[in-house]
C-alpha cells in the first residue's frame, strides 16, 4: 500500500509502453496520486480502454497518443505535438521495451534491430526531445526502466542485456549532466516481472516456469517507480537479492559464473 503523494498533483507524466504490464500499472499509480499520465503505446484500443478506466477510477483525464517508438521520425513529430498540446510536461518514464531470449546465432537481424531501436534508440531520442523542455521549465524527472540483465548478461540474452547495459550507462551519464538543471534522473533495474513481456521473450514458457517464484508483481514495481518521482534517486534495484548478486559478479565474475552456471542457463 502506497501513500498518496501531493507532489504529483496535476503533474503530467509521459509513460511509454502504457497499454499493459508495468507501464499500465505505472499510469494507474500516477493517476492514483493525482498526476496526469500521458499514455503512449502502439495499441490505440488498449490505450483507449486504459484511458476510460483511469477516468472512471481516478477522475483523471489522461491524454492518449498512439506511436510505434521504433519509428524515430514519428517519435520526433509526436514529441513536438505533445509539447504543443500539453504546454508543460513534468516527467518522462521510458518503460517500453522488448526482448528475445535466443542464442546469438539464432537471433535474426530484425529481432536484434527491434531490441536496439526500442530499448535504446527510443529512450535516447525521447530524452533528447524532452530534456530541453525540462531545463527550460527548471524541473523534470526522467525515469528509465532498465534491467538487472544490464548488470549480468547470461546465455540467450546477449543482445537484450547489451541494450539494458546501454540504458544504465546512458542514465548514469545523463544524471550527472542534468544535476545543475534541477532535472532528476533515475534508473530502475528489474529482475523478471509478471507481464506479457515473456510472450516474445520466452514463448515456450520454460524460463518463466523456472523463475516464477522469484518474479516481481507489476503493481508493486509501479508503486516503487512512482514513489520516487520528483525525488533525487540514483537507482532502484529489484529484487534486492539479485542486486547483491550483481555486485558479487562485478567483484568475482569467474567464480560467480562457475557457481551460478545452472541459474545462468535457465533461459
UniProtKB/TrEMBL annotation:
InterPro entries (UniProt xref): NAD(P)-bd_dom_sf (IPR036291), Sc_DH/Rdtase_CS (IPR020904), SDR_fam (IPR002347)
Keywords for this protein: Oxidoreductase
Domain of life: Bacteria
Keyword Ligase carried by entry: no
Family recorded in the similarity comment: Belongs to the short-chain dehydrogenases/reductases (SDR) family.
PANTHER family for the chain: DEHYDROGENASE/REDUCTASE SDR FAMILY MEMBER 7B (PTHR44196), DEHYDROGENASE_REDUCTASE SDR FAMILY MEMBER 7B (PTHR44196:SF1)
Protein name (database record): SDR family oxidoreductase
Organism this protein belongs to: Virgibacillus halodenitrificans (Bacillus halodenitrificans)
Amino acid at each position: 500500500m502506497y501513500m498518496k503523494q501531493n507532489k504529483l498533483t496535476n503533474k503530467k507524466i509521459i509513460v511509454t509502453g502504457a497499454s499493459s504490464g508495468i507501464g499500465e500499472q505505472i499510469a494507474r499509480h500516477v493517476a492514483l496520486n493525482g498526476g496526469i499520465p500521458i499514455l503512449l503505446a502502439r495499441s490505440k484500443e488498449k490505450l483507449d480502454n486504459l484511458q476510460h478506466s483511469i477516468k472512471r477510477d481516478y477522475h483523471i483525464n489522461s491524454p492518449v497518443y498512439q506511436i510505434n517508438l521504433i519509428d524515430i521520425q514519428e517519435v520526433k513529430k509526436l514529441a513536438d505535438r505533445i509539447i504543443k498540446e500539453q504546454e508543460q510536461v513534468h516527467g518522462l518514464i521510458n518503460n517500453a521495451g522488448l526482448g528475445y531470449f535466443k542464442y546469438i546465432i539464432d537471433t535474426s537481424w530484425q529481432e536484434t534491430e527491434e531490441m536496439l531501436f526500442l530499448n535504446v534508440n527510443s529512450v535516447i531520442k525521447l530524452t533528447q526531445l524532452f530534456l530541453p523542455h525540462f531545463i527550460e521549465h527548471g524541473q523534470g524527472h526522467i525515469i528509465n526502466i532498465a534491467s538487472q540483465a544490464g548488470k549480468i548478461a547470461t546465455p540467450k540474452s546477449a543482445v537484450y542485456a547489451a541494450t539494458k547495459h546501454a540504458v544504465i550507462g546512458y542514465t548514469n551519464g545523463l544524471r550527472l549532466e542534468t544535476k545543475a538543471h534541477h532535472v532528476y534522473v533515475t534508473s530502475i533495474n528489474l529482475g523478471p516481472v509478471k507481464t506479457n513481456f515473456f510472450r516474445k521473450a520466452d514463448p515456450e514458457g520454460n524460463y518463466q516456469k523456472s523463475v516464477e517464484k522469484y518474479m516481481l508483481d507489476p503493481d508493486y514495481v509501479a508503486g516503487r517507480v512512482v514513489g520516487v518521482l520528483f525525488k533525487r534517486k540514483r537507482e532502484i534495484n529489484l529484487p534486492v537479492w539479485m542486486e547483491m548478486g550483481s555486485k558479487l559478479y562485478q567483484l568475482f565474475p569467474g567464480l560467480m559464473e562457475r557457481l551460478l552456471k545452472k541459474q545462468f542457463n535457465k533461459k
